[in-house]
Amino acid sequence: MDLIDAALRDAKTEPRYGYVAPFYAQAKDVAWAYLKRFTAPIPGVQHNESELRVDLPNKARIRLYGADNADRMRGLYFDGVVLDEAGDMDPRVWPEVIRPALSDRKGWATFIGTPKGTNQFYEILQQAEESPDWLALKLKASETGLIDDEELADARRAMTPEQYEQEYECSFSAAIIGSYYGKDIAELERQGRLTSVPWERSVPVSTSWDLGIDDATVVWFMQSVGREIRVIDYYEVNNQGLDETAKHVLSRPYLYDTHYLPHDIEIREIISAKSRRDTLEGLGLNPIQPGVRNDPVERVNAVRMMLPKCVFDKDKCKRGLEVLKHYRREFDDKRKTFRSTPLHDWASHGADAFGEFAVNFNKTLARSTERKRARIGTMA
User: Fold this and answer.
1) Is the pLDDT of residue 338 over 60?
2) Which letter, b or e, does each residue of 187-221 get, where b requires 16 or more Cβ atoms within 10 Å of its Cβ?
3) 24 found inside a domain
4) Are residues 214 and 104 in the same domain?
5) Is 293 helix (H, G, I), strand (E, B) or coil?
6) Tell me: the pLDDT tens digits for 317-332?
7) Residue 156 lies in domain
8) ∠ CA(344), CA(349), CA(354), 5° rounding?
9) pLDDT value at residue 174
10) Cβ neighbours of residue 137 under 8 Å, at least 6 residues apart?
11) What's the chain's average pLDDT?
12) pLDDT > 70? residue 270
């Protein structure tokens, strides 16, 4: 209703307004019926079903978008935009895509959402609460009176305390529902393991990669010091060539050890007869250790075994920590239960890259243990 009201009153040339949900299909399911219903009485209105767009008689336009394809909004301008369930969106969508699109017209933005940990939505709320230029509303069910006591009591019985606090009481401290590593990261924070981590110049740095073509390429940087794994850096980039990513990694001042990459880097292209491994080695990335094909369950278990040994640089790995906290199981809407497979979203690539290292680290540790046992057996 805010979008419709603002669009009808806007006297600028060809006003543009947008509603953004985490997924395009979600935007259609949540908002399209409402948008058509509330604009239907307006004389001269036109509804475009294929583009989920409403054209108003003053040449204003309201359109629905999905943050899963945020690049389609690049180059546009907005006079106003609503980001619904902003905490489920890739944290780069707002600062890198939508915020610049508001500059030409000095447009406004409204963020709506359910708390899901201390993510970007939480940071935006903190900013809003501290700034006189923002309006911030935290609508707790226990305070608004919008839901009666009987319904709230029934919800409490049907949900875990964490679920209830998150969904009804605006709690950002409750764990992200379905998160694989949310509690593990929270425990590391409690232990003081998310801190400033020094880079030991004399200790080799290992990297672990997940390669994307149309989406994110991710690199983690780790040092193994005694029994401790120091996670010292994190790099993520979109729509960048493999050679540029490799050059960026090699430009850092680290003394490198092994570079762990997915198993499919060995596959050769038909035309060039070169594999991505050949390309990386030709750029000077050595030695490369291709991973073995593993399933998500194996990666998750390996990460959970490794995390208690980890210390993260909270600043350099800020994005990576958000990725790990938000990596979660896929929810089956029909069966109303979590599947055993992870949800593929903006957090997947970073989590897979970290899992690649964990699998290889645990296997290396197991081989080392076996060698020690063999030596002891020989001595006996």
Assistant:
1) yes
2) ebeeeebbeebebeeeeebbbbbbbbeeebbbbbb
3) yes
4) no
5) coil
6) 999 998 998 899 887 7
7) 143-174
8) 125
9) 67
10) none
11) 89
12) no
* pLDDT tens sequence across 150-168: 999 999 999 988 788 889 9
198 contact partners, CB below 8 Å, separation of at least 6: none
Checking 3-7 for CB contacts under 8 A at 24+ apart, the result is: 3/35, 3/62, 3/80, 3/82, 4/35, 4/38, 4/39, 4/62, 6/79, 6/80, 6/108, 7/56, 7/58, 7/60, 7/61, 7/62, 7/79, 7/80
CB hemisphere CA count around 37 (13 angstroms): 6
Q: Where are the alpha helices (DSSP H) in the chain?
A: 2-9, 24-27, 33-39, 99-103, 120-130, 141-144, 149-158, 161-169, 182-190, 242-251, 276-282, 296-306, 318-326, 348-379
Could you tell me the CATH number of the domain that includes residue 360? 3.30.420.280
Share of the chain above pLDDT 70, in %: 92
- Scanning 40-160, the segments in alpha helix (DSSP H) are 99-103, 120-130, 141-144, 149-158
